């Protein structure tokens, strides 16, 4: 679990590693990377998330097109976590590109408090 060490440092430093991980051929690697980012977002402060969101929102948006449902769900959860932390205003321009179905799903996740991924049922 070495990746948890990053949560105490700067998330911006690992952007290149994250970009590689979300392109990995193994879907579990992609979804776990996005799940970890969601955890990071949910457990940090607003100032930190405002600094990092511009680098990561495009990664999350691209992951919404993944062929694996778990990866798409993890990307939605990460976007919802950002929106809950910093509000929708900083995301408006990026989210304009989403189709209506995806906008509705994201809106529902934000409204229902479902920022955590569906795979976290314990």
TrEMBL record:
Domain of life: Eukaryota
Gene3D superfamilies in the record: Leucine-rich Repeat Variant
GO molecular function, one term: microtubule plus-end binding
Annotated HEAT repeat ranges: 56-94
GO biological process: establishment or maintenance of microtubule cytoskeleton polarity; microtubule polymerization; spindle organization
InterPro entries referenced in this protein's UniProt entry, alphabetically: ARM-like, ARM-type_fold, HEAT, HEAT_type_2, XMAP215
Pfam families (alphabetical): HEAT
Keywords: Repeat
Family assignment from sequence similarity: Belongs to the TOG/XMAP215 family.
The name this protein goes by in its record: Protein MOR1 isoform X2
